[in-house]
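quick one, 375 residues, struct below
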Amino acid sequence: MTTIPLVDLRAQYQSIKDEVDTAIAEVIAASAFIRGPHVERFETGFAAAVGARHCVSCANGTDALYIAMSALKLRAGDEVIVPAMSWISTSETVTQAGGRVVFCDIDPVTHTLDPEKLAEAISSRTVGIVPVHLYGHPARIDRIMDIAQTHGLWVLEDCAQAHMASFRGSTVGTFGIAGTFSFYPGKNLGAMGDAGAIVTEDETLAERMAMFAHHGGVRKHDHRIEGINSRMDGLQAAVLNVKLPHLSLWTERRRDMAERYGRLLSEAAGLKLPVEDEGAQHVWHLYAVCVEGRDALARQLREREIETGVNYPTALPFLPCYAGHKHVPEEFPNAHALSEQTLSLPLFPEMTERQQDVVVRGVQKALSQTRRDAG
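---
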């Protein structure tokens, strides 16, 4: 039996091979390796796709967060609220930009920032909120924005897993002051290396972020501020320009596969399936189920040559780097439970129904075996 991967980047490349190879050859022929026309074309095209006025490209999704928070001018003592369940980029960039990270528990249904807990986390030192559209599901951004506006806070959306996800018809990344994106190869829109971007409606903020990402200058040798070196290279931009027109179709394919998983696994005892909240359009970067005995299920699926993923095995407040915060699981019960129960099943646009059927049967058999062993 052939291994069924969590994501199949080779299959995606083969589906658009001629387009990608031609684009890469053009970059090499023109020696357009750093910024240049391919990067400019991507910034324009991605801004239009998202529905934002400005797109500032950069080297990766982590830099996107750091650049945005630095441009928002965090000061020592400023608190920024982030969800307790995310990749560490969401929280570490707060500290790197000069602020203090404050964790907030997640909603038990959507697994995104819980608006009810958010209000409790706000203090007189809070300046901003970073909701994460986790796994491709939009956070409850309407309620988050209402709370932010009531308290005079900025909202920076972490859209690293949610390219073109939407809430009530508007694309994520367009609700707050800015939205950050990662184009890591395995993302729904992925480069062939690292790349990232920030979108915003604010022209002044866009100019400040672009300056900061380019050594603080608007042009070479004209450095208005101290910045960093975070540039999207021409090869990655060329690949992204090829992929961007395919993203809509790939997203619909992901949605179809997620709906099919939901039907085929609806009777699987002990398995909690992901949902799509009212008003939200999930783009299914990950199909993350919850199950007691997650590690046993993953092991049994691996024995059947079915790859799975765990995102994330430790909630952010309990990572060793945050030991100084002295958090305990009771403070973030939903994030703590999710970290012990979540398992991502294979889902990618090129996945066949036959492959999906193998995954479904593997899950069903593994759960049945677990029940027999327990009984």
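The longest strand covers residues 54-58.
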